[in-house]
Amino acid sequence: MEISFPVFIETSINIILFAMLVATAFAITRIDRLFAVVMLSGVFSMLSALLFVTLDAVDVAITEAAVGAGVSTVLMLSTIALTERSEQKSHRPELIPLLVCFVTGAALIYGTLDFPNFGDPSAPAHAHVGGDYLVRSIKEIDVPNVVTSILASYRGFDTLGEVAVVFTAGIGVLMLISGLGRRRSDEDAALVEETIENQGIEEDA
To answer: What is the DSSP letter of 118?
Structure first.
């Protein structure tokens, strides 16, 4: 069966984006400089957003770009400014975390075995309101991706609530970071005062 040129281009773009995602994730695990890790995390989020765009899930792409590459990067950089610049080496064995990752991945893969086949019309997601959405969304919303039309229109208020939750969580993190910054400033001021007092005592002696 011959593959049309647009399908070939789209498939090639998806493969390239997936390869870049894997390379970025591997680089994040191997770098010790936290600033570089945060920047690469932002790159990972942008690549994910581009991948969502190729799947016509524009709403998810916008959320990923705004939260993953935007807000999360700013919060991480603010945290680095208040902590260390490099990762502290752990003296604990790395075998146990690796084993936990493998067991968790195996459990997730095992769980997918009960999923219905992709595109199965008798799947629970297609047996109730899913078919109605598939028929009406193109005519009423005029968006190629049905998930986007559902999240942005049919479930618009629910999506607005989720955005409010994310916004509230971001404000809470900013408050925690600002409190940590003030506490660190107070500790630094107390340390300076103690150093000056110790120097004065040594000079008097």
So the answer is: T
Check pLDDT > 90 for residue 103: yes
Strands (E), 58-188: none
Residue 188 pLDDT class (50, 70, 90 cuts): low
> Which residue type is seen at 75?
L
What pLDDT does 95 receive? Answer: 82
d(CA 49, CA 58): 8
Do 27 and 40 meet the contact criterion of CB atoms below 8 Å apart? Answer: yes
Backbone phi, then psi, for 173, in 5-degree steps?
A: -65, -40
* Separation between Cα atoms, residue 134 and residue 118, nearest integer Å: 16
pTM of the predicted protein model: 0.61
Beta bridge partners of 33: 86
Model confidence band, residue 192 (pLDDT cutoffs 50, 70, 90): low
Q: What is the mean pLDDT of the chain?
A: 79
| C-alpha distances out from residue 84 to 76, 80, 114, Å | 12, 6, 45
CA–CA–CA angle 59, 61, 67 (5° rounding): 100
Domain locations in the chain as residue ranges? 1-87, 156-205
State how far the Cα of 46 lies from the Cα of 36, in Å rounded to an integer. 15
Q: Which two tokens stand for residue 95?
A: 């075998």
Contact call for residues 86 and 33 (beta carbons, < 8 A):
yes
Q: For position 180, what pLDDT does the model report? A: 60
Contact indicator for 145, 58 with CB cutoff of 8 Å:
yes
